[in-house]
Amino acid sequence: MIESFENQFYGRFLSAAVLRRVALFQLLAQTTNPYSQKELKDSLFINQKTLVNDLEKLTEDLSSYSSASQLAFTDGKYHLILHHSFSYSQFFLTYLNKSDTFLIMKELLINGSFDSIHFSRKNFLSISSVNNRLNEVKRILDDFSIKLVKKNIVSLYGDEKIIRYLSYLFFSLSSDFERIISQKKKKQSAVLVKKILQLSELQKSFENHHNLTLWISITLNRLDKIKTNPLQKQIAVDFSQDILYKKISHPYRQMLTTYQLSDKQSTLECQLFYQYILSFIDIYPNLNTNNLPICYQLALLPNEVTQFWFETYWTLFRFIPFPEDKATMYKKVAQLHFERFFFGGSNTLLLQVKTDTDKKEFMTQAAYMTELFYKKLRTRRKFQQITFPKEKVFPYYQAWIQRGLYRYFKLKPIKISILSIYDHVPKKYYLNLIKNHCFQHIELVDVFDASCELIITDQFYSLFETLNTPIFYWQMRPTERDLLGLKKELLHLIVKRMNQLVIH
Predict the structure, then answer these.
(1) In terms of domains, do 90 and 219 share one?
(2) Is the four-CA dihedral 313, 319, 324, 325 of positive or negative sign?
(3) CB 275 within 8 A of CB 308
(4) For labelling, which of 33, 58, 285, 387 has a CA lying 20 to 30 Å from the CA of 216?
(5) Is 475 found in the same domain as 339?
(6) Average pLDDT, stretch 192-201?
């Protein structure tokens, strides 16, 4: 059994003890004898500390593996996923159809060395599970003597793991509301309304913890809709829930598609989303964003915020009003795309316009901005002139802005000065952008300074052409098999290029 796991799911990255754990879960799923079930459960829980140690050891083992790794073990009922990326230690553990999961979650969260643990919302579909989760929030606060005061929480948990855990609990509660509402269960809705009102008290106490406060706010916003009409028709596409879920479990995300919402539905959902974006801006008071359009406000935000929300915002740009006229807006959007392509790894999606007229107008402006922006670079860095005829650029823009740029850039090796374009932007900001986006699958040595250049060649792009994936689009991660196949060539290529950085 263990051997089959090794062969099928790259078990060589796991210690034998962890593999035994997985095998125990599989046996438990297949066992119907109550005595055997109890014995297996005892084995799992008695050796809980061993599992934590094994997973910590696994973290160390994976840290030496420079590409992102995703290991999955499934037997139909239980599903354990360990996801690791060299840039941060992050594991998602999901146990489906398993009782006492909170005990495992809490133990791993408090004693394990994980940044976050995601509890799948698939576990909770009943009213009893909602009550259990509310009780769990209280129990955690009681068990660890955590008072609802910021300084006490930070003193006990400096990394605020407990805050993230509570945030996930509230998010799961929020998911349950929508599920029950969609089933038009009036009685259960009334019970939920009564239960969730307690969250408003928690919200005040956690006012300085943005992540938790935000999710409680979203939950309460949904509550307002429930109270207004417990049997209202569920919004066709639950934008906020869908996006939040994808944010947590991004290894499973597919490319975002344009949401088909009516005017009334889009107004409700986009108001919530707009508030979400603004709430991120609020936590960075030093940014002078009062007089800027939302697109530029987002562009100024720190990288960890924009890497997800910026591209999501532009996917739905047609649903949110802009202060400029259309022509001006298209020009600014195109310029912003290319600025972020060169200097931020381009984590934005192509604007998914709905009509042919809008698409044609945008393509024209985008092609114009491509040429203009490249000329600016050429002037600063003395690049060889490359023109972008609109009739040739247009087909590439139908799918991805970046794809068209790749094809032109493959004509000749390119040197892009990352740090000298805008002198007023802190150097550290550009360094983080390079590390976090441009080469997210490669572990970089910190050898950058203000005068170094990033050298990109056609060989580098051709590797990712085989995956049909823009390399600077961070959500579109290659699969495990793709990474294993490319790992050796990619590492050699990038290490070679990084060693050739020209430091004047």
Answers:
(1) no
(2) positive
(3) no
(4) 285
(5) yes
(6) 49
CA-atom Rg of the chain in angstroms: 25
Return the number of other C-beta atoms located less than 10 Å from residue 462's C-beta: 11
Q: Which stretches of 95-247 are assigned E, i.e. beta strand?
A: none
Spatial CA neighbour of 464 closest among 488, 445, 492, 483: 483
- Indicate the residue type of 66: S
Nearest-CA neighbor of 309 among 353, 273, 340, 283?
Answer: 273
Taking Cα atoms as reference points, which of 364, 344, 366 lies closest to residue 298?
344
Q: What is the DSSP letter of 152?
A: H
Amino acid at 358: D
Whether 219 contacts 199, CB under 8 Å: yes
The torsion region of residue 454 among left (phi > 0), alpha (psi -120 to 50) and beta comes to beta
DSSP 88: B
Cα(46)–Cα(58) distance, integer angstroms = 20
Residues 155 and 82 in one domain: no
Positions of E strands within 131-253: none
Is residue 27 pLDDT above 50, yes or no? yes
Q: Are residues 455 and 333 both part of a single domain?
A: yes
Q: Each residue of 431-454: pLDDT tens digit?
A: 444 444 333 332 222 222 222 223
Give the chain's domain count. 3
Domain that holds residue 173: 124-234
Closest CA to 244 of 271, 276, 270: 276
